[in-house]
Amino acid sequence: MESKHPQDSKTTMTDSVLPSETNAIHTLFGGELLARMDRAASIAAQRHSGKIVVTASVNHVAFKHPVPLGSIVTVEAKVSRAFKSSMEVYIDVWVDNKTSKGSIKVNEAIYTFVAVDNTGSPVVIPQLVPETDEEIKRFEGALRRKQLSLVLAGKMKAQDATELKALFN
Ligand SMILES: CC(C)(COP(=O)(O)OP(=O)(O)OC[C@H]1O[C@@H](n2cnc3c(N)ncnc32)[C@H](O)[C@@H]1OP(=O)(O)O)[C@@H](O)C(=O)NCCC(=O)NCCS
After folding, report:
1. CB atoms within 10 A of CB 23
2. Rounded to 5, what percent of the chain is helix, strand, coil?
């Protein structure tokens, strides 16, 4: 199976913020952003694996800045590491700067997807080869994040999370 690069899965989705997608103070509702990120990340995971994918876990989300009504929001997702059947996907979120060119980063998240067959059973996926400095950094941290996610989900014993434990040694 041929390996792939993060760029092969890059998925960019731009959309505005409508009144029905905001909270009581007229900024983007968190659940709406989670759904947008899940959609972009699932396409990235599908592009990497060429398979049906399901969200296995939301590992990290940081809502750094509120996103006002009317903002133009861009969600970018890329696979940061592939394991046997699971993939870590990194999502970066930007809002267009209203007063000048460019954009402001408002959010970052990490999701895990699993490639499955028609019966929902996990299937083997291509490996991922990172290229840029940022892609290498994200790739290197992915195994400990996978172990943390599995420990929190009750699927791995803390004492078996060797990569995670090494952080504290
Ligand atoms: C995700 C799912 C397919 C995993 O099935 P499973 O029986 O636990 O399968 P396995 O134990 O073989 O795990 C498959 C892979 O997922 C990984 N995985 C499972 N749960 C995970 C979690 N919480 N965090 C990170 N990775 C996880 C495993 O480590 C394994 O990775 P690998 O094959 O790359 O080494 C299954 O739990 C499922 O279908 N969940 C529902 C998914 C869904 O409906 N999502 C949408 C929610 S609305």
Report:
1. 13
2. 35, 35, 30
56-74 residue pLDDT tens: 999 999 899 999 999 999 9
Domain coverage including residue 13 = 6-129
CATH number assigned to the domain comprising residue 107: 3.10.129.10
* pTM, to two decimals: 0.95
Region of poorest pLDDT, from 83-87, 99-103, 137-141? 99-103
Q: How many domains does the chain have?
A: 1
Ligand 1: centre distance to CA 67 (Å): 32
Ligand 1, residues 53, 83, 86, 160: which to mutate, most atoms within 8 A of Cβ? Answer: 86
Residue located nearest, by CA, to atom 11 of ligand 1: 155
User: Which atom of ligand 1 lies nearest, measured to the CA of 87?
Assistant: 34
Q: How many residues are present in the chain?
A: 169
